[in-house]
Design goal:
The complex is a heterodimer. By secondary structure, chain A is α+β, with helices and mostly antiparallel strands. Helix content of chain A is 54%, strand content 15%. In chain B, 25% of the residues lie in helices and 28% in strands. The chains are: A alpha+beta, B alpha/beta. Chains A and B meet through helix 14, helix 21 and helix 24 of A and helix 1, strand 5 and helix 2 of B.
Amino acid sequence: MLPPWTRAPLLSFGQPAVILAVLGAAAILACASSSAALFLSSAASESLRVQLAAECDDASYPELQQLGTSGFNRGQEPDAGRDERVAAAMTGQGLSQPYRLALTPGTVAIGANDQTTLSRMFYRDGAPDQVNILDQVPGEGLLLPAGAAQRLDVTAGDTVAAGPASFAVVGVYQDLFSEQTVRPYWCSYTGLFLNQASLDPPPPALVIVTDSALLEDLQSSFDAGLQSESFDRSWIAPIDTIGLTLSEARQIVEQRDRAFEQAEIANQFGRRGETGLLPELVDRTTLIIDGLRGPVVPIALGGSILALLLVAAAGSYWADRRVREVRLLSSRGVGPAALAGKAALELAIPAIAGTVLGWVLSRWLIKSLGPSPVVDPSAPIQAALTAAVGLLIGLVLLATVAGLRARGSTERTIGVKRSWASRLPWEVLLLVAALVSWLQLRNEDGVVIENNVAQVNLLLVSFPLLFLAGAAVLVVRLLAALLPLLRRRAGRWRPAPYLAVSRVAASRLVSAGLLAAVSMPIGVLVYASTLTDTTEYTLAAKAGVVVGSDIAVISVDRPTRSAAIDAVGTIVARYPYGSTDGQDVTVLAIDPETFSDFVYWDDRFADTSLPDLLAALAEDDASPGVNALAMGLPDETLTVTLGMRDVEVDVVGSADTLPGRRATDPLLIVSADELGEIDRTAGRFTEIWSTSTEAAVREALPEGIRVLRVQGTDTVFRVANFLSVTWTFGYLQALAAFVGAVAIGGLLLYLETRQRTRIASYALARRMGLKPASHLRSLVIELGLLLGLAFVVGAALASSAVLLVYRMLDIDPTRPPGPLLTAPVITVIAAAAATLVVALLTAAYAQRAANRADMAEVLRLGA
Amino acid sequence: MNRVSDACGAVVAGRGLSKTYRRNAEQVHALRDVHLTLHAGELVALVGPSGSGKSTLLNVLCGWERADAGVLTWGAELTGRHAEEMSWGELALIPQALGLLEDLTVGENVSLPGRLTGKGDRGGKAARELMTSVGIAHLADRYPTQASLGEQQRCCVSRALLLSPRIVLADEPTAHQDADWTEVIFTAFRQLVRNGSVCLIATHNPETWQYADRILSMHDGELREGAPTPAH
């Protein structure tokens, strides 16, 4: 005969239902416990990706730099082996072969034909291939932009002086600022040729050095002349930023630092020469993840504790299914510890299999639904270790409960008098803790900004969890007290509702437990998704208010209204330097006819609707003043100074938020026609606010209208700084879905445990005349009533919690509007549909089990 | 072959009923060529030790199990019907496992057949009378689990008798009763059969045999007329 420790693990295979229950519970536990490590790593990867996407491709490449401080290298011999040495140092550290870049940090005068112009000398491997050559001769030398060549009156084949020496002009290229779009190659250098800040004078000519060998000649000439300009030299190793993880990014930064130590490139005053954006992105990502870890770890812990309840239920279920054997063992003196050991041995294999399944599931979930499918290689290992710890705790709990239930010491049947402890409203303690959290939250910011990175205050997570758990149990306790009343009423109803209500009312404790268990995830889901949607919508609204529409194409010229412009946008004249009564004010002169078609607007911006505000603006009243809509100014007549002119303004409407507000000054919106001509000293930008693409607006602009810059809603914020806010609530939503899974698991175990008595009742009731359809209806009503009520309770409590806290969730208080409450309609509908589907499926499951049951067997063994 | 009774005027007659189970490698003959006839107005005791096949015979009669061989015919107004199609007013059951609905009170359990069929005393008058007669009227508002096993069993008997069924099949209906309540229950059965119904009561308690008009004894799947012989 085999010893028990080898035989016991095989016994559970005779109980497929128990295997499934333990497998499912262990999988959910592993999923909960291992998800935090994977989620944080996934969030880090996504945070890096978002930040990298906002930068030029090469901005994050590891770069070694030798700064060309004026005169520092004067008189020194050229460092002949520098390029090879640096390249060897970088590749030796595992970085890719670097390309070279050299640029004069300041301007260099170049001259020809008695003309001079200022220039920046630029060298980068392959640069001549990235410009549109207009004129060219063979050989190496300088490529001049067409504008500079024209000013110097030179063509390809001429020479220009740069210092005492002259250099061949081997080509003339089209000025980069005049190209329709900026090529990716030049992305990091737009400041060298685009006058985005509208500076006067504009950027100097960008002279391209075609051969790196010329750099030394140029440097010698600089040193010999009056200009003591030196090249800044860089060696940049391209990296693959797609799918870059935080640890990989850290490793690249370390490789770069070590390469710098080995490269032996001296900088004045011992300044370091490691550069590139990557370290900054790594630091910011670390900050984001540190902020995210605060709420995520407690959420994962809470989820794991809930999953342990399901594991305990699975242990109880084992005891139910093995009741004959364990009673027999009990009667022969086998103690609870030995029974627990037996349960642990029997259930170990499905528990381990479930843990592996849960780990795989959490990896799949993070890959499919997480912020990024990419995680650090160490994250799955860390997740597996956490899952293993969860498994150990789960097995101990499972065995303990199974042992206790096997002895019957924890069995409770309907009708047994409840203890005084179970009658105490323990949930009030949770509500008190929630109240303390909320009171503390009122004195703190809901979102903490650290180094421009927003982090969710942990209280915003703990408050709703405590509130929802406490309030759900309290409300359910109160509802349960009404069940006898409902039951009395049901006495007059048709069989299906009568049986359904009877079942709910008879098992009051079980029904209440189910109700609370289901209302919790619904509540957490509604709370988290409302705050997520509110945050995202508010962030979009803030960006929309800054821009005025989806994009603002800004020009210093004055395009006028045309059919083509009307089709894509509305013209807004911005006067940013107005003043009234000593206070700075921005005035927007708009076209009221087309304004509402393109402006970003939310009805909560003002008490009056936008059409009514615009109608007030266009109203022809007796007052000589210009009608205006105001934000941050009183409703009265004002004198606004714009350039040389004082404009009388009648404020005819006001709003908490007006679109187009980019500074903290008050804002006035007037009709452009009514405002009339304003002199040039006022300083004016003309903007096309559009919901179309930039290209469409450019296409619609008349010839000769120059675009100064384009502002889009996607460039207003550094989005990565706010990611942790939405991710925190996203993870909370995941917890809700997870708790929902736990609740469904509990529901199935509940149905399964009661199945035998239900089947016996059903068998007899059918003989008494109960039709199968009526029985199914009664199951649907029973489960629908429980789950539907749970949905209403959860959603109502979550709404209360949201109303208490959403105003604290302003992630950028300097920019209007404040938080705009946004209902997560799709999530709520999806949750309601899921609830309905679960009710129908579980009812169908119970009905199917009843129909398939062997009545003779059930009635012989039952009761 | 054991000839039990003439089929003429029978409410139900079984001919050559056999039923075999397979328990691992072993074959269990629960019914062996059983012939059985039940007449209107009869109270028949089906006696025999545990495992003799009593419950199997009741299950075959009520339609929950099918015999491997043999014919079951129903007489009078039940001619051509199958047991599983019969209403509670035609064929009522008292299973060994009772099968009370735990979510309904004792009173509701008793009156449930009337409620589900739309017949009978929906106001509960008949149910109250029945419960009074078997001593459980005071438990009407309690759940079955709040009553003793004996009381639950009397609740089950009352439920079976509520619609005055044509046939009652009862499996150990007095297993949890003392002598007084056993007499009360059999008195209730006796009142029913006086109105032309038939009761087949499976019991292993010899003290109950005195209430029966006829005794059928089972042993190892075989049915015989009369009380079991000492050899059995």
